[in-house]
Structure formats: structure tokens, C-alpha cells
Amino acid sequence: MLQLTNCIVLYGPDLEPHWCDRFQFKGDTIHQIELGAPCEAIDHGALVVIPGLYNSHTHMGDSCLPDGATGMTLEEGFFRPDGYKYRELAKQSPEEHLSHMVAHLNYMSRTGTVGHVDFREQGVYGSQLLRQASIETGFHVSVSSRSYVPYVDDPELEIRLIRAQEISRYVEHGYLDCGITGYDWIQENGSKVHEVGEFLFSKATRQAARWVLAVPETSPIKSVKDLNGKRIATEVVNLTRKYLRKNKVKAAVEFSWGATEVKAHELVDAIVEITETGSSLRANKLRIVDTLLVSTPRLIANTQAWQDSWKRGKIETMALLLRGALEAEAKVGLKMNVARKNLDHLLKTLPALRNPTISNLSLEGWVAVETIIDEHVVREMIPALKAAGAEGIIEYPLNKVVY
Q: Measuring CA to CA, which residue among 228, 276, 266 is closest to residue 248?
């Protein structure tokens, strides 16, 4: 969450300037605006927040067309596939067309346009040119959520979206050089791969996932020993059979295609299911008997790819950046200005700031302080910072923290 204090906001349909005590936002979402009185004058150098403009109908690069369509009907000039516009576009080299697109996008960026929807002619070729122009100008380029071949702006990488259950097998056999999957699926598939690193993240929490043995709350089954002669449904058949063998229990294990929690009450005696918080099991009136495996995401590499120095370097770079991105999720940056005479008091009051970056300001007797802290403590810290003499406090999100 980024927080601006003591700034000016252009607000309302007429973009009237107002003093703003607090302006909080994250990404493209504004979370809080505390408006003050209207602002009569804006000082040079003041922090002014203005709304971004979105152009929902653009034709990037068509500015390369000369004005020769003047006097033509819309059909003659633009509508027909053999009309003037398309004939002129066909004459442009890729380099010329790309340069016009880049110029157009840069103009939009300079004049406050933060996004656009482009109606691109020339099929795949035109889309590729627009993608390249977007890369060069820093505009965001996205891929359809249904695409299994995401676009990446690194020509040395090719990415595929594959189910976590299958990734370790494809990496083991060399179809993929590396991949991210769960430790559970490496064990379930018995894949022989090189483990590069463990990365704790998930859809719901930062907790590790667990494969647990669960039964209905009213079931007489109290331990794995009570499963002799019983039936178990699960997606991890191999893990479950290994668990039963370890405990010298003979039970039938069947593969479950989904909705495994429902089967426990009518179709089988027990299930082995994955959980992070246990809430889904409790909602289905199931009781955890035992934990078979604790699983976290792992970056894995094919053993031969890992022996290749170039591929290994690339994989290690990805691991470094991924770890930095995950570290940054729970932290924020803080910037503030403080009079030098109050600096020692600020640091003594806030031990978390014992190693900040301190820079002299152009205004004599003042310094800028910048540090990184855990996000969950920032709400208590900002009032303390203010009381210690800090001004112009800015909280900002972090992309990566690399130690």
C-alpha cells in the first residue's frame, strides 16, 4: 500500500484542487482519500495527484498515414480492405511502422494517458508490432487468461502453463528445463530432479499445504491402524499407498477426480486431501486423523540442464528474483524528511529504523530517511514517526527485496 500525505489532489468532474491529508492506493486501486479544503494556489514543487486518462479507442501508428484520404468517402478511405488506408499501411516497412507506434505511445504517456484499447489492423503482424512498441515504451502488455503460452519479454525464455501434477515428470524427462511445482507432486511422481529452492506462497496463505487423512466427524476411525480393510479416496494414490505400507495397513486406495470431501460420508471410509487451513474439511464435517506430507512450492531443474552452465545461471537468476519478489510481499518502504536535530530522537524512538539510509536535503538542517519494514507494523509506526518530527511520510510497495 502506497500512502501520500500533505499533498494536493485534483478531484471531481471539474478536477478542482484540494488539500489532501492522506491518499492511499495500491496498484490501480484507491483505498482512501482524506480531502481537506479547496486549494487556491499550487506552489512550485508541490506534490499533485492527478487522475490518469484511459483511451478506449486507439489506432496506434496510423499517424504514419499521409493526409491523402481527404475528400474520399469513409468506404473509399478506410472501410474497404483494399481502401486507401490499408494500401498505405502496406507500403510501410516494419521499422517505419514501429517507430510511428513508439512515437504515438510516448506522446500518450507524456500527456497523461495511462492505458488504452487498440483496434489493430494487419492481423498477427500488426499485433506483434504493437507488442514490440509497448515493450519499448513501458506500456503493460497482457495475454489472454486462457492462454497456456504466456508472453515474456526475455527472448531467452519460453514459458508454458502446465498442471502442477505433471510438471515434475516433464522436467525429469527433459521436455522442460525447469519448473515450479509442489513437493507433494515430486514425491507422488517419484521424479528424479534437482531441487533449486523452496518458495513459500499459495493462493490463500503463506502457510505450507498438508496432505491429511480425514474421516467424518462421527466416524469410529481414530488412527491409521483402524483403516485395515477400508477404502480411501484421494488424488495422491502413490503417496497414500506408501503411507499405508509404512504403517503396515492394508486398505484399498482409489483415485479421486475431485469433490473428494463429499465422498467421505457415503462412498468411502476415509479420504486423503490437501489443506492449508482446514476450513474446507471443517465445513464438510470432516476430522483430521493424521498428516501424511507437508508440501511447499519448489523450483526444480532437469539434472542435465543443471549441468549446463548457461542454463544453470539462468535458472539461478530466476530463483534469486523469485525469492526477492516473495520477500517483498510482506514488506513496504518508508520515506520521510526530518530535521537533523530530531534525527537521533527519531532513531531512538523507533528501533526498527536503526539501519536506514540517510541523505542530506538541499534545505540546510534537514535529512531524508528511507527504510524497509514489515507491512503489518506500518500502521503503528506512521503516527510515531509523525510525533518524532517526521514530515512528508511516504509509504510505498516493493517489487523485490534481495539480501
A: 228
